[in-house]
């Protein structure tokens, strides 16, 4: 059993923040699982040997990208960027004695991860589990995205699994071709809004057509909204330097987070969607009500510009990020090997706070999740080595860190109700006033 590694918490804030009520005791981030390469719980030793000998399993090509928690399991996504990834979605027990390189169980099953079978999962970058126990899976349908010849196996789709039922039956919903291009769309990350028929807001970091895809479950309809200025990579942020390794990654809109509900000036309920390109130092925000406006998608480029708010800059680039139920955003700062947080009731430019920094153990912060015990988890995956084909099987490449924060996921944020019936008002042009309303409500809670 490996020695638990403690990662120092840096408590100094970049700026003085107002006191929060009932601040929980914070723990240091600890390594709870780590791997040099990923292996699986095979149905038999013969199966493993067959997959290995036919290059359907190439250990150094299996990367952990996304993470989510439900029940007693941690679910992990394994995008098929390279050949030799036998399963693209898997799980491990959340609590087990052996913390060194636990083997992954394909989810829902081996057959449900079969390449070329459009009833099965093809390429899962990320997942989310909503407040009702529904797993939302982003399946790009295209494999080998880091090879010279990516192959579109199946349509880009949303796949739903009701985890509460226990039967793990998949419902696949291909996205409209008016919304996605099977050859260029890259469904990267998502948040789920369990209001008004259930919505998902999805980042598409397509190299040629980046944007936010909105999917409404009630009628299975989707549309895409674009804003080049806030959703495209910037040249000054495309170069990443991590522990002596340099990689050029001009990647568009990537991370996304969803804030708590708030009441607007016209007494309707809204939420704030936060997002950023991977290759950018800026964090942007827009009201969910704006994204839900299908007519803006029909207008095209420029329609979102009046509603996008540039909240300010970070010291480095961010991949994944996650918000808790009270409006605290957790995010990584890749270039400085840092995990940071921001209480969204204060100004982003002065309210960012470093909570962990370690160049040896925090190498490329990818995705976050919360469990039901007040813990936050983060995936560290050294993506920069993976992209450059420099993964060493003699070194630890993937880690899951955990810290107690007393937090729970944004999906469990408080439900608000307007005091008067909502009016059919146009979306507000900025989130400034609504953020102030939320800030006041948070402080007096």
UniProtKB/TrEMBL annotation:
Extent of the signal sequence: 1-15
Keywords linked to the UniProt accession: Secreted, Signal
Broad class of the protein's primary localization: secreted
Gene Ontology CC annotations of this record: extracellular region
Localisation: Secreted
Superkingdom as given in the UniProt entry: Eukaryota
Keyword Secreted: yes
Similarity comment: Belongs to the major royal jelly protein family.
Protein name: Yellow-x
């Amino acid at each position: 059993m490996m020695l638990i590694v403690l990662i120092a918490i840096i408590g100094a804030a970049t700026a003085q923040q107002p006191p929060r009520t009932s601040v929980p005791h914070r723990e240091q981030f600890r390594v709870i699982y780590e791997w040099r390469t990923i292996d699986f719980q095979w149905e038999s030793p013969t199966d493993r040997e067959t997959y290995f000998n036919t290059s359907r399993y190439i250990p150094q090509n299996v990367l952990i990208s996304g993470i989510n928690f439900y029940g007693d399991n941690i679910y992990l996504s394994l995008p098929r960027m390279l050949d030799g990834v036998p399963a693209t979605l898997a799980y491990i027990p959340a609590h087990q004695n052996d913390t060194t390189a636990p083997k992954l169980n394909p989810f829902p099953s081996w057959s449900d991860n079969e390449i070329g079978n459009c009833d099965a999962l093809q390429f899962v970058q990320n997942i989310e589990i909503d407040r009702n126990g529904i797993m939302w899976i982003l399946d790009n349908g295209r494999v080998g995205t880091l090879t010279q010849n990516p192959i579109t196996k199946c349509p880009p789709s949303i796949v739903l699994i009701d985890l509460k039922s226990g039967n793990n039956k998949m419902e696949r919903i291909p996205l409209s071709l008016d919304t996605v291009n099977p050859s260029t769309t890259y469904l990267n990350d998502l948040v789920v809004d369990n209001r008004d028929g259930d919505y998902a807001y999805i980042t598409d970091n397509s190299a040629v057509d980046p944007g936010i895809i909105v999917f409404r479950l009630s009628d299975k309809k989707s549309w895409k909204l674009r804003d080049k200025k806030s959703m495209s990579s910037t040249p000054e942020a495309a170069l990443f330097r991590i522990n002596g390794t340099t990689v050029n990654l001009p990647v568009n809109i990537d991370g996304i987070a969803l804030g708590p509900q708030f009441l607007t000036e016209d007494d309707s309920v809204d939420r704030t969607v936060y997002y950023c390109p991977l290759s950018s130092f800026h964090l942007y925000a827009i009201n969910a009500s704006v994204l839900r406006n299908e007519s803006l998608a029909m207008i095209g480029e420029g329609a979102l510009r009046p509603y996008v708010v540039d909240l300010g800059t970070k010291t480095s680039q961010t991949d994944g990020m996650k918000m808790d139920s009270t409006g605290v955003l957790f995010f990584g700062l890749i270039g400085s090997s840092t995990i940071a947080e921001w209480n969204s009731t204060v100004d982003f430019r002065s309210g960012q706070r470093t909570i962990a920094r370690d160049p040896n153990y925090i190498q490329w912060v990818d995705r976050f999740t919360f469990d039901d015990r007040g813990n936050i988890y983060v995936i560290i995956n050294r993506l920069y080595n993976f992209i450059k084909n420099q993964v060493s099987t003699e070194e630890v490449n993937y880690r899951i860190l955990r810290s107690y924060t007393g937090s729970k996921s944004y999906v469990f944020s408080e439900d608000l109700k307007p005091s008067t019936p909502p009016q059919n008002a146009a979306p507000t042009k900025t989130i400034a006033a609504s953020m102030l309303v939320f800030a006041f409500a948070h402080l007096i809670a």
